[in-house]
UniProtKB/TrEMBL annotation:
GO molecular function: [protein-PII] uridylyltransferase activity; phosphoric diester hydrolase activity
InterPro entries: ACT-like_dom_sf, ACT_dom, HD/PDEase_dom, HD_domain, NT_sf, PII_UdlTrfase/GS_AdlTrfase, Polymerase_NTP_transf_dom, UTase/UR
Single biological process term from Gene Ontology: regulation of nitrogen utilization
Protein's UniProt name: Bifunctional uridylyltransferase/uridylyl-removing enzyme
Length: 924
């Protein structure tokens, strides 16, 4: 880098010598600097993409920036603002602060500079600082800067933690080194020695807020590398705090200070290196300071970092598993540092409790001799307790749940150091298995304690099959969390439902959950339902085999073992039937009942399905899905109960009508009876009260002097979507017209409920993705869509032309590749042929499918439109124009070819623009 500085000086000197004035030389000087910057960045990028280290890349870019700023300073001070008094040059000091001060700079990062001034600024110093900034801006660099004296730095640091943090990592660039040393000494004396506790509290509070903004879980499938939980900022925060409290300059000094062991320091460095590699690749790949590992970028980075497909996991899933394991390690290091800080009384206790989970403390009696309570947290009496009795590795977590105490980080650290003691002997130990099962079935803090058990690695060692899915990402847009986090959240959902902590679900399970005969079958089935993800074989079948092997170890009877295995094998079945089949068709219920076979299994599967969907992500279990599942449960209960049910179909319809009647108190009995007769039984069973009220208002307001036509818009805030309600005269191409109008408006349909009234009206509810953040903007957009839809339904727009006129749109789904599949089945319905189409979702897909079905002279009797992230699964119950099923093999082949072609043509268009597509996303 020194050679670069000398070379730049020579080029700048030549440019200034050839120009009549310094101002005339400026364009060429900037060109020379830009060429040096671009060349240096190209070298850094090439080295990184050839297998180089991330930190080496970041340090190279920081060194490059150092030389660039020094060259700019020499140019300004020698040619632009020449100091009349040579002593003036010693009166300006340039300091790198913040991230740049650490000497590691990501490709898209800001340049943070402090122009450190003597007690009184000079006009020369102001002019030089300004000129340097102008050159940096000409180079299109993002610069954060401040000009302050030492006294100003101190006064600002006392009231602003951000400024205090930037000065922690101040680094001398050029100027008066003595003035810089004075800054450090004053900062240490006036700020760091007196405000440690305040600073630690502020930084941990800031971390909580930052993580909440980026996503509270470190296992979100699109993590933020810099700001997310377990990201680089967490490592930075640890070092800032440690540097502040332990008075060290370099991270390695933390070992000598006793904060970290050599092994933990090595872990810190490995985490830092990995995260810097990911961040630098991400910045170079996107050409900007992008910090979010989006679905689009994940496969590209997996390729860049050299990951390969292996053992049932795609390269992108292996890369992301590595990422989440590193995030977990960062969390472990956070716990170690916080425990040490608390021991030094350098940290407020309340912050610790927020970081390590909410526990409800219970009375402590007869604490076992191997355990103690430190600072209201459960600890061990040293690591020797695990060597003395390895069962203590399980007993520790069981006891934390029993006492309602959070676990002390020293205890968690001890578990991590003794994981090798969780071996085959301990896994076979009856007492260890009893304690684990009691923890799983506890009504106390099961989810919180199991999560700590997982983060230490103990859960994955005690149940090795669980260890295989730790930090495993599912590369799809449906699941929000890693597999292990999803399983723990599912257990948490069940525990909360049992305790009544989820009132929105109480109507669903109030009559069912208390009647389940065997809680341990339900809890273990839920813990294991996705445990075989990432294997070559179907995860439901492989999971069944895991259950068959594990249950006897945990003391389950043969019948209980078979029930757990059945639940795991069929855990997706109820969700698929509810969302993709016509539940009002008796054949659907008969087929489903044949799989379930008993009322007890039906109850177990119903509750497991609710918890599974609830744990996928926020608001995924919405009112529509819940209503469908509840209807499927009731209909199947009738069949399995021999024609009897706790609440039969006729009573449920009557109750649904009565609920609406009570809400429409201003209607007369005659009005209501006339209105109620317009709906078939399926409507009353499927629709919730808010939708029934909305439909009643819309249908009653229809004009009698012209054909009915309504396109109304509302916001579904629970699902973050826009809801279109369409009422029109029913006809064969109506659904295709609605879908086409939405496609032409740039609307992506993610769900639909379709009904026909007794007087021949279609009553369709279409759920669409949002575009805007603010409700007002979204409602205006919805109004435009409704207006366009009205015009399309009146035939004033040629939909196919409007769709062709739209520019091709890109979306998150473009990062995925899913093999399309068309299934045609005549056994699923007594009167219809069922066509199930699955493939990569996109704008206009439903229109293309329904349009193709109409062109094939098929009548869509009912449609079930669902989207699982990037995967669309649309099911159509169809008849031919004579009202018959489609039995002809040749005609079925034509249907299949036409529908597959829709995906094939779209794939060709996408491939031309997206060379980084990846293999098939796993099934949900």
């Amino acid at each position: 880098m020194k050679a670069l500085g000398a070379e730049l000086d020579a080029r700048i000197a030549a440019a200034c010598a050839e120009a009549p004035t310094p101002a005339a030389a400026r364009p060429r000087v900037v060109d020379e600097l830009r060429a040096a910057l671009d060349s240096g960045r190209a070298v850094a990028r090439s080295a990184l993409e050839s297998g180089g280290k991330g930190l080496a890349c970041a340090r190279f870019l920081s060194d490059l920036e150092d030389e660039l700023i020094r060259a700019i300073y020499r140019y300004v001070s020698r040619y632009v603002h020449v100091a009349g008094n040579p002593g003036l040059e010693e009166r300006l000091t340039i300091v790198a602060v913040g991230g740049y001060g650490r000497g590691a700079l990501a490709p898209g990062s800001d340049i943070d500079l402090l122009f450190l001034l003597p007690s009184k600024q000079t006009p020369w110093g102001e002019s030089v600082a300004q000129a340097i900034l102008y050159v940096l801006w000409d180079l299109r660099q993002k610069v954060g800067h401040a000009s302050r004296s030492i006294a100003e730095c101190m006064s600002h640091s006392k009231i602003d933690m951000t400024i205090r943090t930037t000065l922690i990592e101040a680094r001398f660039l050029l100027g008066n080194a003595q003035l810089f040393e004075e800054l450090l000494a004053t900062f240490d004396r006036e700020i760091m020695r007196v405000g440690a506790r305040e600073f630690v509290g502020a930084k941990l509070e800031e971390r909580d807020q930052r993580v909440a903004r980026a996503g509270a879980s470190r296992y979100l499938v699109e993590p933020n590398v810099k700001e997310g939980k377990g990201g680089l900022r967490d490592l930075n925060t640890l070092f800032w705090i440690a540097k502040y409290v332990y008075r060290v300059r370099e991270a390695r000094e933390l070992v000598a200070a006793g904060l970290l062991t050599s092994a933990e320091m090595s872990l810190f460095e490995r985490c830092e290196e990995f995260l810097w590699s990911v961040r630098c690749h991400l910045h170079f790949a996107t050409g900007r300071a992008e910090e979010r590992l989006s679905f689009e970028m994940q496969p590209r980075l997996a390729n860049r970092l050299g990951y390969r497909d292996r053992a049932g996991l795609s390269r992108v899933e292996r890369f992301m598993k590595h990422y989440f394991l590193v995030a977990k390690d960062v969390g472990d290091l956070t716990g170690i540092v916080c425990a040490a800080l608390e021991a030094r009384q350098a940290k407020p206790r309340a912050i610790f409790d927020r970081m390590f989970g909410s526990f409800r403390r219970r009375k402590i009696n007869n604490l076992p001799e191997d355990f103690t309570v430190d600072f209201d947290r459960l600890n061990t009496c040293g690591d020797s307790v695990f060597a003395k009795d390895p069962v203590n590795l399980i007993r520790l977590f069981w006891l934390a749940d029993q006492l309602g105490l959070p676990l002390h980080p020293d205890a968690l650290r001890g578990v991590t150091r003794n994981l090798r003691r969780i071996d085959a002997d301990l896994r076979a130990n009856p007492e260890a298995n009893r304690l684990f099962l009691e923890l799983l079935l506890s009504r106390n803090m099961t989810e919180s304690v199991l999560r700590k058990m997982n983060e230490t690695g103990a859960l994955g060692r005690f149940i090795p099959d669980f260890g295989r899915v730790v930090a495993m990402m599912q590369f799809n847009m449906y699941h929000h969390y890693t597999v292990d986090e999803h399983l723990l959240r599912a257990i948490g959902a069940l525990s909360d439902m049992e305790a009544g902590r989820l009132p929105q679900f109480q109507p669903l399970i109030a009559e069912i959950l208390p009647k389940i005969l065997n809680r341990k079958v339900l809890y273990l089935g839920l813990l294991l339902h996705d445990i075989a993800k990432g294997r070559k074989e179907d995860h439901s079948i492989a999971g069944r085999d895991v259950a068959l092997a594990l249950c006897p170890r945990l003391g389950f009877e043969p019948g209980e073992t078979q029930t757990v295995a059945w639940l795991v094998e069929h855990h997706l079945h109820m969700s698929i039937v509810a969302q993709n089949r016509d539940i009002s068709d008796p054949r659907t219920i008969e087929t489903f009942a044949a799989v379930v076979q008993s009322l007890e299994r039906l109850k177990l599967l119903f509750v497991l399905t609710l918890c599974d969907i609830a744990a996928v992500g926020p608001n995924v279990l919405d009112a529509w899905k819940a209503q469908l599942l509840r209807q499927l449960y009731w209909e199947t209960e009738v069949v399995l109960g021999g024609g009897h049910s706790a609440v039969d179909r006729k009573s449920r319809v009557a109750a649904s009508k009565a609920e609406l009647r009570a809400a429409l108190s201003d209607w007369s009995d005659e009005q209501f009876e006339a209105y109620a007769s317009r709906h078939y039984q399926a409507y009353w069973l499927k629709m919730d009260l808010p939708h029934k009220l909305r439909h009643a208002e819309l249908l009653q307001d229809l004009p009698s002097d012209r054909p009915p036509l309504v396109a109304a818009v509302a916001l579904d805030k629970a699902r973050g979507a826009v809801e279109l309600t369409v009422i029109a005269q029913d006809h064969r191409r109506l659904l295709s017209t609605i879908a086409g109008a939405c496609a032409a408006s740039g609307v992506n349909i993610v769900d639909a409920h379709i009904f026909t009234t007794a007087d021949g009206l279609a009553l369709d509810t279409i759920l669409c993705s949002r575009t805007f953040e603010f409700d007002e903007d979204e409602m205006r957009r919805g109004g435009r869509i409704a207006h366009y839809l009205n015009k399309a339904l009146r035939g004033e727009i040629i939909i196919s032309e409007a769709i062709r006129a739209r520019a091709p749109q890109t979306s998150q789904a473009a990062a995925f590749s899913i093999a399309p599949e068309v299934l045609i089945d005549n056994a699923l319905s007594a009167v219809c042929t069922v066509i199930e189409v699955s493939g990569l979702d996109r704008e206009g897909l439903l229109f293309e499918l329904t349009n193709a079905i109409s062109k094939l002279s098929l009548n869509i009797v009912s449609a079930h439109v669902t989207t699982f992230g990037e995967r669309a699964v649309d099911t159509f119950y169809v008849k031919d124009l004579t009202g018959d099923k489609i039995f002809s093999p040749s005609r079925q082949g034509a249907i299949r070819r036409n529908l597959i072609e829709i995906f094939a043509s779209a794939g060709e268009k996408r491939t031309a623009h997206s060379p980084d597509s990846v293999g098939n996303a796993p099934a949900s």
